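Weekly modeling sync, notes
Attendees: S.R. (lead), two postdocs, one rotation student

Agenda item 3: backlog of single-chain predictions. S.R. asked that every request posted to the team notebook include the full sequence so nobody has to chase files. The rotation student volunteered to paste the first one in as an example of the format we agreed on. Action items at the bottom.

Example entry:
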Amino acid sequence: MPSQPSKTLETFDNPMPERDYTIRIEVPEFTCLCPKTGQPDFATLYLEYVPEAKCVELKSLKMYVWAYRDEGAFHEKVTNTILDDLVKATEPRFMRLTAKFNVRGGIYTSVVAEHRQSGWQAPEAVTLP
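Predicted structure, as returned to the notebook:
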């Protein structure tokens, strides 16, 4: 049976929960529909997160993103909804979702939404010469 879109996000145990490290995922084929015109909106999603106990499983993320293909959504709302769903599933220390939408009517839109676990502090950045 072929795969089907699904709003279920699966997770797996973080293999290194004692360490802060960043996972970066790029999703270049996000599609939803403009709620005003019904025309498709295309975006690349950039997900960055520091996991706590769980990581998002990539096939389920692919099926989750696919589930938006036929839904009408404003850019701002869909970006924040996706972030909320990912935070609910993984409970990360930190998560940032950037949605860069393709040009529409001569306008590009980027939406950035973030979640920070209460009390979590980002480690100091290391700059090498």
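Discussion: group reviewed the output briefly. Residues 11-116 form a domain with the GTP Cyclohydrolase I, domain 2 fold (CATH 3.30.1130.10).
Action items: rotation student to repeat for the remaining queue; S.R. to check formatting next week.
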